[in-house]
Predict the structure.
Amino acid sequence: MRKGILMNTEIIAVGSELLLGQIVNTNAQFISCSLSDLGINVYYHTVVGDNRNRFMEALKIASKRADLIITTGGLGPTMDDLTKETIVDFLGLKLTLHEPSAQAIREYFKKRGRTLTENNLKQAMFPEEAIVLPNKHGTAPGAIIEKDDKIYIMLPGPPYELQPMFINYVMPYLAERENQRIFSAVLRIYGIGESAVEEAIKDLLLNQTVTTIAPLASYGEVTLRLTVKCRRDQDPLEFIKPVEDEIRRRLGTAVYGIDDQSLEMVVAKLLEEKGMTLAIAESCTGGLIGNMLTDVPGISKNFLEGAVTYSNEAKIKRLGVRPETLERYGAVSRETAREMAMGIVDTTGADIGLAVTGIAGPGGGTAQKPVGLVYIAIAMNGNAEVEEFRFIGGRKRIKNSTAKQALDMLRRKLLMTFYA
Amino acid sequence: MRKGILMNTEIIAVGSELLLGQIVNTNAQFISCSLSDLGINVYYHTVVGDNRNRFMEALKIASKRADLIITTGGLGPTMDDLTKETIVDFLGLKLTLHEPSAQAIREYFKKRGRTLTENNLKQAMFPEEAIVLPNKHGTAPGAIIEKDDKIYIMLPGPPYELQPMFINYVMPYLAERENQRIFSAVLRIYGIGESAVEEAIKDLLLNQTVTTIAPLASYGEVTLRLTVKCRRDQDPLEFIKPVEDEIRRRLGTAVYGIDDQSLEMVVAKLLEEKGMTLAIAESCTGGLIGNMLTDVPGISKNFLEGAVTYSNEAKIKRLGVRPETLERYGAVSRETAREMAMGIVDTTGADIGLAVTGIAGPGGGTAQKPVGLVYIAIAMNGNAEVEEFRFIGGRKRIKNSTAKQALDMLRRKLLMTFYA
């Protein structure tokens, strides 16, 4: 096919284990990511079992709606590995022994002291028209076949075989034909819902420019994906930056991060920038907040200590919560949250104390204090702010919402804090 | 369509983020797993972007080659959510407001004190022919539509919305039409590797009966999936039980649980059975162990308290670790782990103290104490046992391996404990 023409891609994964749900199709994700970096569109993913007829049907459909057809899996030595044979029949080609591949396979077995069985050489059979792609991590080579203005690329199923083959051989092959690129940036938003976000930037969504905007919501977070497609000699940021700036101007501090930044990463960064230390008192989250924060390397400089005070005794003994407070207002209350936050600061000497107490359920809820009721307190400079929340969902989801909300409160607090 | 006929299924995921490789299609895996438990075939997975024409094309193809078409995603309130609208057009139906759904959506927003925007009610529009599936975890209801001998099922994209909806409404709906069933039981194994497991049950793997055995390894755990396909009037356990018993006889306590039981669930159950209380001192895991345990409902009766003693000061002040010990052996040492475990018991009065200290990396490793070195201690009846481990992988993986290993040590200890 002609160079510099934008290709439309279909990725076909062959393997019954995918249709049985035994494994996830991570190959499709890896290939899609890589292709989007090259500015190559992916229009369809298809998964089909180890069944010759259904795979043949899928090939017919793909060859009608795509220019580039990439298959993964089914290149093994066993009888139900039929990807190569089926594609070759579909294209009306013939298989012959590819001597370099046969040699490589013999080597591979010799190295491991395993004896070569006949069917292993099945993996060395290719049509003469094919560009054969060596497999340094397994016995199944891949192949590229160009026919009738279409490109067919066959890759092995195991990710540790597919990924190096794709990076070392397929990417260079494709890059050379493409003169375009796609660039994406993801804005991460917390604290306002998807529809509210969309209201705020409705006009931008309606009049999309070369930079497209796609909202996505999950677990109380909203992300906006900004994507621009341009020539390789252009700088995509030139198109994305103005749109990003306008969105940030409208949504303000609700935009907490970009691309793969998590709330905990942003909080850790702020703590480091402001040179402040943190201690956490967790009840209903049971250690989740500490766990999230300590996923960030180097946090030990700023995170002094966490107390998972599940029982009342622990709240009293560890944090100095007053028994009268627990008695009068209960463990899940504004007052207890405040004393927990003040207490963790007193006992650790941290600059900031974060405390959460709530009812994660499924049991323990009442009419006045339903499952999902959560209080989050932040103590600093001798006083504490407490906020009440009502989260929904199962136990894990409530713990998760609580942890994220607590990290976001901390983030907003730190943004407004100038440490002397 | 007629009942008792084995259905062929196609799962269509709608979402450009999948084609850009930003997320993996785990919904297809979840649905495929569940359907195989019902004995329903899945022949194709398809992924298509938020594009009306291409989705319409995918629908045409699917309706030709499948009896049951399940879509995921594209039910949100935003403009690029077009799954429902497209299917309804494809089937030549009309959308009208579904009052119960509208009501649920209003409630949902009230609960959160968020203001309902116009586009949210878009999610309450359904054809009269549809069976509407309530969404307890989000605002987008799902739907089942039967037309021309085909079944169309629309589900929301977020897994925490899709999964309960599928389990609570779709599974019962489908089970009722199927006369075949596949039943699976998963044996969960910790502490021995995949090849050792396969060695121990080699003969069973070679001579599989009506009950098939499929080993799967991931992150230090091994699972054996026992599957039997039988008529609905047969009891699958009759076939599975003997095989399960034989495997348990051979692997002993290495089999820690079955199906979805996690290590933390098993530990929680043992604590309750033995009526023992637990306190945890975590360093490198930063609260992960407490978080895992507190995912189990009702754990508060047996889990008294956790201390995330990240800094040396905390280890000294909270747990009474002796400064000399830290100086002489270091924070990551057999001795420190022991004193942490003894200390958390002393300060909490718990029956058992669990303590972990290690180097999660990426920094902080030395030749003598490399990243991944971990000490786990269990204190009981006045003395503590300590074990040393060397885990590999990145920071999160090391934290995870440590937490699982600690829970498994605790499990084995509890199995041998008879509390007076």
Notes: The first helix of chain B runs from residue 16 to 19. The longest strand of chain B covers residues 180-190. Chain B has a mean pLDDT of 91. Chain B is about 40% helix and 25% strand.
